[in-house]
Amino acid sequence: MIHPADKSGQLALVVAEIKQKGQPSEPAFDTWNLPKKSHRMTSLMRTIYLCYSFGFLLSRTTAVSLTAASVHDESLLPAPILYGVHASSYSTEVVRFLTQVTTDNIGLTGMKFFSITRSFVLTVAGTIVTYELVLVQFNSFQQTSPLNMTNVCEVK
């Protein structure tokens, strides 16, 4: 008997047994012993896991993106308060801070190529949805049309 930690050796023995006898003496994988109903359950469990992991990934990405976008949103909050400063308290520091808050683009960036704002997150989400819709439409056209894909752009 092979040690359970030695999976490659066990697999080699099972393959050798199959070549000699036509079937292994003991199953190499647990799923061979499961009845057909369990295979459907395994498929159902995989589907549930896929949906759960995709939803979790999507919600985590959305949360991180919106949190990054909130940095820009929070940077705009001091401006109305600074505009409301009374004239007796108005000083050079208030003017400098107000100028900095209103003119600087404060927020997280992607190597200063783009700033992550709510509008940027919405634009990226819209682009992804549009791309997926184009892929779905192209796939349905490709499945229903017997034409060669090089002839798609030809005018008839």
Automatic annotation (TrEMBL):
It is a multi-pass membrane protein. It is found in: Cell membrane. PANTHER family: GUSTATORY RECEPTOR, GUSTATORY RECEPTOR 5A FOR TREHALOSE-RELATED. It comes from Cotesia typhae. This is Gustatory receptor. Pfam families: Trehalose_recp. Belongs to the insect chemoreceptor superfamily. Gustatory receptor (GR) family. Gr5a subfamily. GO terms for molecular function: taste receptor activity. Coiled coil: none annotated. GO terms for biological process: sensory perception of sweet taste. InterPro entries: Gustatory_rcpt (IPR009318). Its main location: membrane. Signal peptide: none annotated. Keywords: Cell membrane, Membrane, Receptor, Transmembrane, Transmembrane helix. The lineage of its organism: Eukaryota, Metazoa, Ecdysozoa, Arthropoda, Hexapoda. GO terms for cellular component: plasma membrane.
